[in-house]
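Re: folding output
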Amino acid sequence: MDKKGKTGRNTGGKPHPGPPGGRLGYDVVIIGGGIVGCALARELSRYELRLAVIEKEVEVGFGTSKTNSGIIHAGHHAPPGTLKGELEWAGNQLWDELARDLKFGFKRIGELLLAQTPEDLPYLAALKKQGESKGVTGLELWGPERIQKEEPNLSHAILQALHAPTAAVINPYEACFGLMVCARQNGAELFCGAPVIAIGKEADGFTLETPRENFHARIILNAAGIEADRVAALAGAQNFTLSPRKGEEYLLDRRLQGIVSRLIFPTPLATSKGVLIIPTFDGPVMVGPTAEDVEDRCDLSTTFAGASRVFAAVRKYCPAISERDTITEFAGLRAVSESNDFVIGPSPVEGFFHIAGIQSPGLTAAPAIAAYVVGLLKDAGLALVKKGEWQGAIAGPPRFARMSLKERKAAIGRDPAYGRIVCRCETVTEAEVLYAIAQGAATLDGVKFRVRAGMGRCQGGFCTARIMDLLAGGAGLPLTEITKKGRGSEICCSRQDDSGASEGG
């Protein structure tokens, strides 16, 4: 096992010998390193299993999880009688302990769901009753006077709001990294940049082919996000279809920090929870998402039309927010099943399990989904013997910006690299960037999502060149091989002379 728990390329651990043919052999292979795949890996690392995670991107959390709104829902949104409803509240209650153990950004700030018209009022009353039936605590209906006292920047035309104190915000990419570091320090192995291109069924399990290595697994857990139905089809196990639903989000300048102190929800639409105001864990406010059904599973574009819809909606309940305050924008794809519910359970092919259709509240439910799947594996007859020693906590990344002056002085005394600021907007030091590289970051986004370098107002305008220098030294990469998020996102290229011969980077 890699002692450092790196979450990038699989550089640690001696592969388990597999069946003849040069394949790596495992009891369980998880396909997909998003928030659910990472939660599954940590949960299963408690047991005496040969365990591997195969991820098509160059880092875990680089798919839907990276573009997630970062909301831990309060527990009352999803209706009873669905897997979403069963696992939402259960998952909500598991995040406090996970955040303490894995050291990622997490804070319970509560939410307000707004009634802007008389027609919205019965929905709030029904949602409160639904939440209470599920055991959600602290739900209250607030009138206009209480709303204006608690959130003075919201429109005074709001008629009522449902307050849910159990809602939280989280850095989902940090959670992915933390979950995987923990899984790897307990024996799980990780293979990134390894899309599954073929799956074969054998008497004793499955073969999996990737461009990197070939694998043998007794059991496959298909947590491949928006591609989960296509992965299932490779094994002849497809009994559902996913449709992509795009959501555009907009991050605002820090000057708007504090304009609201809670998550702000409108009364939901048929296809989504509507356009939200999200005070992120690190301070900046985010607005969105849209909800647009698309055909292209690679469509991560943002649009003028999407921005217009987002800011027109937000201004109805918070007039001070403007599109002029946007510092960056991005889009993500939700994986929507025909039932609009999670698809979790055994497939028509023995030993192949679906964990698919994980749209909202998938982030909230992720740790409960992991526990639920462990139960399914036990029911299927997999022998799960707990390890005598299992280490559930990790050291976590250094955070210079959150240190006191005394702590900063001590850190610089231990390591002068803490005294060299790389990212001015987010106060990220050279020592933190080097930490990210030591943990496996080999891309600009790998550094960005571990330690926030490049996430501020200038969006990397100041720090990108310095981070590239550190990547070139720490990761041993030529500048021409440094990318934003993997192949196809190179930052610079080699010069060529008149004959077309490369002169190097």
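--- second protein (sequence, then structure) ---
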Amino acid sequence: MATSKAIPGQWSPPAPAVALPRPSRLVECFVAIEIVCQVSLLSGALAPFRVVFRTIVFAISIMLLLMLPGHGKQHPAARVAFFVMIVLGLSMLNPGVNNSLSAAAEFALYLAVLAPLFWVARVRVDLGELRRVLMLMWGFQVLSSIVGVLQVYFPAYFQFSVSTVVQGQGSSYLAMEHFQNAFGQIVYRPMGLTDTPGGAAAAGFFAVLFAAPFFVLDRRRWMQMATAAAMLVGMAAIYLSQVRVMLVMEVVCMVTFLTLMVWRVARSANPLVGRRIGNRRLAALTGLLSLAALGGFAWAVGVGGTAITERVNSLTSSSPGEVYQKNRGQFLLYTINDVIPEYPLGAGPGRWGMMFHYFGDPTNAKNPGLWAEIQLTAWIYDGGIPLALVYLLAIWFAFRVSYKVAVNQRSGELAILGAAIFAYDVGVLAATFDSCIFGGGGGLDFWMLNALLFNAAYHTLRRTRPAAARR
């Protein structure tokens, strides 16, 4: 049978367009499961299953890594993350390991936290999916901030079950987690939708930070009012939680976001950016943030009493360096002066934190459990100086990518969301000097959001590339 050929000069129908695969909703589902597991921890009836709910999200992250097909365009930090796991795997041979089960559990935790760098690349993410994921996370954190404020107003109705790990610290520790509110009641530092006293501070931090890009991008009146309310309640939750590091982080992150936006407006000739953001909009955002900071403080003092004023005033009682040294700086000095010289190649994975609490052998007197208050200490325990350096390199790649997206001249909304994630990255890095944030859900969210941003930028900017650049 002869095959028909097009005659030169004669019209022929155009070749059918190749349809791009639809963006995946997988990350949204993952975040929804994360939220459900977090809320499940608040029920006293589910207390016997706390370990299960705490590990479900990490188990799913590993499952997606192993089961999702394909390779995709991976975040530049993914290659470094691979070496993180190699260093950690070699550290499992360290004779200082407490037991093989806790070491394996620590290895699995690192794998679950870093896994989004790999499995997010295997699904297609566009700008809309990035926006929906951020909106879902932001909405939950706003709700958690509201609950945190209500816990100080009405502790009898909104106080949830406290983590068994916190309860196990003893009565003296629990006493430090209480304060007297303005109504004379002894209440926990607000937990929000977590099971840890003071947990509402992290919710408030996220609520305020990501309200900023939504305020800039969304011109609907009701959304403008919602973002303004979120900033106010988020700041109140931070003050009431009395977590001073979150207050400092909020200020630093918002200054970072505003600086990136001002720099972008000053340098960009993109009309899309001109329509989205401008001097008036940024001035309004700056003023709104200032009002939220002052109004949130007044609100918190009115509900929380003098304990809030005393806690905030302690930030200015001495220089910032002295304040940090009196609180968390001692742990940094201890790590530099004692931990690193003693364990330059690590003490063995699984000797600190929840993995030791759940899987460690407390009867092993030769290699007992260790205590880590800041992330550097945890990295040194798990893999020594090599692990700390490689992990910090991966974080640097995350910073590099989010910064490049934020200042890209060919993107509008994506750049604004990228600036918010870059500011968020700054906050997470600062949190490593106060906690072991990469040893749990905070680290998983960090890598998931950065992988999501890179994936969305890859698919969005590739389509909007000028014709001259595609030749």
